[in-house]
Amino acid sequence: LHPELVNIAETIAAASIAVQEAIEQKKITLNFHLQEELPPIKADPNRLRQIIVNLLDNACKFTPPEGRIDVRAEARSDGKGGIAAQDYLLVSVTDNGVGIPPEEQGRIFERFYRAQSPLMVEAGGAGLGLSTAKALVEAHGGRIWVESEPGVGSTFSFVLPISEMTQPAASPDDATSQGAS
């Protein structure tokens, strides 16, 4: 990873461009619900974009024509992120697609696993997108999960820490003023 301060809203916008053709072909409505003034996070911008592209790509594949995808991003400090940091960024991609049966939800982040679905033949893919997204989220100190109901749709969410990662590094002047040499 090559972390730097990243604007998540800009990253989501860039990721959505990567799936624009699929969105247009299926006439899917893509909605954004981004909290105003999201704090920057320290992350690898290319890998963060890859995570979001993978989630959007899956949502496109398993959403029927004229369906809907909602992307949400918000900063939280309620301690419910399930990661060490109290403050975290929550990003969710929700579709109104085919959904995932409960018995398959525990396996969808495994490499090469492809859930059984009526759209599977159409969707294609090698079953690596979600396992890659999981590995990249975890490499950033976060976690990823799915909530899904067959016939209703799925929500893939991930959290990344904010507070510890976005604190500026101490400058040499700070160390000197504290008596360090």
Can you offer a commentary on this structure?
The protein is globular. The relative contact order is 0.18. A five-stranded mixed sheet has the order 2-4-5-7-6. Strands 1-3 form a two-stranded antiparallel sheet. A hairpin with a 3-residue loop joins strand 6 (143-149) and strand 7. 34% of the residues lie in helices and 25% in strands. The protein has helices at 8-18, 20-26, 45-62, 102-105, 120-123, 129-139, 172-177; strands at residues 4-6, 29-34, 41-43, 68-76, 88-95, 143-149, 153-161. The two termini are 30 Å apart. The chain is an alpha+beta fold and 181 residues long.
Keywords:
34% helix; 181 residues; two-stranded antiparallel sheet; alpha+beta
Mean pLDDT equals 82
Low-confidence stretches are 118-123, 164-181
Q: Distance N terminus to C terminus? A: 30 Å
Q: Give the overall form.
A: globular
Considering DSSP H and I runs of 4 or more, what fraction of the residues is helical? 25-40%
What summary fits the major beta sheet?
Answer: 5 strands, mixed
* SS elements, strand count: 7
Order of neighbouring strands in the sheet with most strands: 2-4-5-7-6
SSE order, one letter for each helix or strand: EHHEEHEEHHHEEH
Number of helices: 7
Estimated share of beta-strand residues: 15-25%
Q: Tell me the structural class.
A: alpha+beta
Taking all Cα atoms into account, the compactness measure Rg is 18 Å
